[in-house]
Amino acid sequence: MPDAAVAARSSETTNSGTTQQVDVAVVGAGFAGLYLLHRLRKAGFSAVVIEDAGDVGGTWYWNRYPGARCDIQTMDYSYTFDPELDREWTWSEKYATQPEILRYFGFVADRYDLRRDIRFNTRVKAANWDDTSERWQLTTDNGADVSCRYYIMATGCLSTPKPPEIDGVKDFKGEIYFTGRWPHDGVNLAGKRVAVIGTGSSGIQSIPLIAEQAAHLTVFQRTASFALPAHNGPAPDDRKTYFEADRAAYREQARWSLAGVPYPQEMAVSWQLSDAERRERFEKAWAAGDLVHILTQLWADQAADVDGNALIGKLIHEKIRAVVKDPDTAAALSPNDHPFGSKRPCLDTNYYATYNRPNVTLVNLRQEPIKAITASGIVTDKRSVDLDVIVFATGFDAMTGAIMAVHPITGRASKSLSSVWAQGPQTYLGLTVAGFPNLFMITGPGSPSVLSNMAVSIEQHVDWVVDRLAALRDAGFTTMEATETAQAGWAQHMADCSMLTLHRLANTWYTGANVPGKAQALMPYTSGVGPYRGICNEVVSRGMLGFRLTGPNVAEQCNDGEVVRLQPDVRLVLGMLAEMNLPQIESLGSQGARDFLAEFNKGRPAGRPVGEVGDGVLHGADGLLPYRLYRPATPGPHPIVVYFHGGGWVLGDEQSDDPFCRDMCRRTDMIFVSVGYRHAPEHRFPAAAEDGYAATRWIAEHAAELGGKAGPVLVAGWSAGGNIAAVTCQLARERGGPEIGGQLLVCPVTDSTFDRASYVDNGTNYFVTRGLMFWFWDLYCSPADRTDPRVSPLRGKLAGLPPAFVTTCEFDPLRDEGIAYAEAMAASGVAVEQLKARGHFHSSFTMVDVVITGVGGRIKMAEALRRFAGLPPEVKLPPQKLDAAAS
Ligand SMILES: Cc1cc2nc3c(=O)[nH]c(=O)nc-3n(C[C@H](O)[C@H](O)[C@H](O)COP(=O)(O)OP(=O)(O)OC[C@H]3O[C@@H](n4cnc5c(N)ncnc54)[C@H](O)[C@@H]3O)c2cc1C
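YS: structure for the whole thing
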C-alpha cells in the first residue's frame, strides 16, 4: 500500500486533538509490533500501534541501501507462530533481499488485516506514567495523544542511526546518505566519486555494489570486521531437508537453541582436534556461508577461550590474504583488535575481492584519522579525497537508542528512564524496568536480542508479554512491576554470563562503545535464547518471581527474589544432570558407584595439554600406591604439589581429577602429583588419612627424582581430598615433617556434623546431597571415630599449620564446614585466605572446561599456591600446543 494511502487511512482512525484510549499502545510496526498487534487482538485487548515510518516493516522499511539483506537464513528469519502463514510464504533465496523481506511484512499485515490499527507517520515523543489513573500517557507528533494501561516499546534494537561524529558534515556540498535511512527511490551513483564511512554489516553489504556503480569508491575503515562469504542462492539442501522433515520440531528446536537456529551443541574442544581436523571444520563452515554455523560449530571453546578463538582469526586472515592482492590492503582488512564473534561478524558477497578493483581505495583510519569533512570531500592526516557523495554506514545507537529517543519516559514518582539508566540500562529480563509499571520492551537490553535470530527472540518476548497481560487481567490485576531485587539479580546474572564470552575484549556496539559518551555495559543477554526462555518460564512458574502485581479488588502480590542465583554454566550443568535422571549414587553400591563415575567421566572434555603426564607408584601407609604426575612444559625443577582427589573416600582415583590437575599444573607452573590413596569400604578410616600423610612424606623425600625443587612441598585436595590434605598438614606438624609450605583446600570435608545451614539449604538439588554424604561417611568411618581429627580436622589443634587457601561454594552442603575450618585456622593464627565462590556448586572448580566461570577462582588458587612456594603470583600461561591432541 502506498505511504500516502496508509497515512490517510490511519488518520481516519484517530481523533486529532483528543486522546485515544486503548488497553495497549505498541510503538513500532516492525517484526515485533506486527506480531504484538495480532496477539493482542486475539487476546481481546484494544490496541493501537504507533509507527514513525510510512508503512510496516521497521528495519526493512528503512534500510534500503544497495545489497541490504538479512544475515540469518530467511527460512529461520520468519514468523513461526502460524504454521499456515509459514507454508503460504516461500522465500526465493537463502538470504532474502530487503525488498523481498519488506514484501513479506506487507503480506503479513494484509493477511491479518493489521494496518487498520496502525497509525503511520506518527512518532511517540514522550511517555508518562500516571500513578492515579494507573495509565501511561503518550505524546505523539501527529494526531491524538494516547492513554493506555500497558505501553510496549517495540521500537527496535537497530532503528536509530548513529549521528556522524566528524566535524564539517554540514559543510559538505555533495550528497550525503545514511544506509539506515536510504532514499526510497534509490540513489544514482553512476560516474560519481563516492566515499563509504564504516565497514560493519551495512558497509560490507553495500560496498561491492556501490563499487560497481561509482567512478571511484573510497572506503574509510576504522575497525576491520570479520566477514565470510554468504554463498547466497537457493536455501541449502541440507537445511531445507532438515526443516521440511518436521517443520514443527525444527521450529521448536530453534526456540530452545543457543542462537535461535537449530544447531547442536558442539562438544569437542580445540585442543582435542588436530590441525587438519580444525582446518576441515573451518573450511566446511566457510563454505556453508552461515554465521550461526561458524559462530557455534567449530569447537566448543571458540567463543569462551582466547586461545580457542585465536585459531579462527588466523584462518580468516589467511582467507583474506588469499583474495586481496595488495598485502597492505589485506593486512588492513584483517581484524586484529578483537576476538572473532566478540563483535558482530558479517556475511558478504565479493567484499574482499572488491578491494582488487582499480576504482576502489581503502583508507585505514587507524593510520590516518579523518581530520574534517570539507565542502569538497574528506581530509585525513595524509590525504585529501574529493567526493560527490558520502555514505555513512556508521551503524546505530543500538539497543537503547530508540528507547531513549522517547524523552522523557517517566515512571513512578516522575522518575525518568534516562536518569535511571544514566550508568547503563537496568532491566529485569530485558523486558521490564523497576519503577516503570506496565512498561514492556521487546528485545530490550538484557535479553538475547541482537545475539540471536531475532525472529525467535521477538516471538518469545511477544508471547511472554501478551500471556502475562491476559493472566493479569484474568486475575484482576492492573499493574505489573519488576522489583529492585529482581532487577539487581538480573544485572548480576548478566555480568556472570558475560564472563563466559569474549565480548568484553572488544569495542563494540553490543556494549555501547560505538557511541561517544554512552554508558558502557554488555547489553544483550549472552547465554542464549533457550536458557533465556527457560528463565522467563521459570519466573512464571515460580509465581511471577520478582514482580509486584496490584489491582483494585485483589490483594497485592509480590513474590520477591532473584530468578537465577547460580552461575549460568552451573545452572546448565545442573539442568542437564537433572534431565539425565541419574540414579542416586548411594543406591549403586560402592563398586557400582565407581563404575558409574568412570563412565560419567568418559563424557567430559579432555584436559588441556601439559608438558608431560606420567604414572608411577609410591609408598603409602601400608604398601604401594599409584600416582599420576603432571609436569609443566617449562624447564624444571618445579615446586611440587601433592594432590588428593575427591570422591568421598570411596570413589575416584589418581586420574579422576585429571582436568583440574592439568589446569592447575599449567596455571601454577608446578608439578602436581595426584595420589591414588586407598578407598573405603575396603579400607576404612584411617587408611585414606594415613596414606595421604605417607604419600606426602614419600614425595617430599623423592622430590629430586620426580624433577621437583628441594624444599617444602605443598598439598592440595578437593572434597574428601581436601579433607586428606588438611589432615596431612596436621599430621606433618605433629610427626615432625615433611615440611609443608601451604595447603589448598577446595570444598573440603572438615567435620562430621550435618547440622550446619549449608547442609539444610543445599542438601538436595546440587548433585552432592546430604544422602550421599551420609553414605560416604558410613562407608569410611564408624560413628565412634568421627571426632578424630584425622577425619574431622576441625576438631584438631590448628595452631602452627601451614598457610591455607580455602575455597567454598555457595551451593554446596560442605560450604559451612569449609568456612568454619578457615575461620578456626585463622583464629589460631594460621595465615588463611578464603574464596567464597558465589553461585557455584561442589564440582564447579574441577569441571574445568564445563564450568567456565570457575576460571577466576582457579586463577586465585594458583596464585595462592605460587605465593606459598615463594614465587610471584602471576604466571604467564605457556602457549597452548595446538597441533596435537591432549598429551
Ligand atoms: C540491515 C539490517 C539487517 C538485519 N538482519 C538481521 C538478520 O538477518 N537477522 C536478525 O535476526 N536480525 C537482523 N537485523 C536486526 C533487525 O533489526 C531485527 O531482526 C528486527 O527486524 C527488529 O524488529 P523490531 O520490530 O524489533 O524493530 P524494527 O524493525 O527496528 O522496528 C522498530 C520500528 O519502531 C519505529 N519506532 C521507533 N521509535 C519510534 C517512536 N518513538 N515512535 C514511533 N515509531 C518508532 C521505527 O520507525 C521502526 O519502524 C538486521 C538489522 C539491520 C539494520
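YS: worth flagging: Residues 27-33, 50-53, 58-59, 61, 63, 68, 70-72, 77, 123-124, 154-159, 202, 402, 405-406, 442-443, 453-455, 458 surround flavin-adenine dinucleotide (CB under 6 Å).
IM: good catch. Also Residues 150 and 483 are 18 Å apart (CA to CA).
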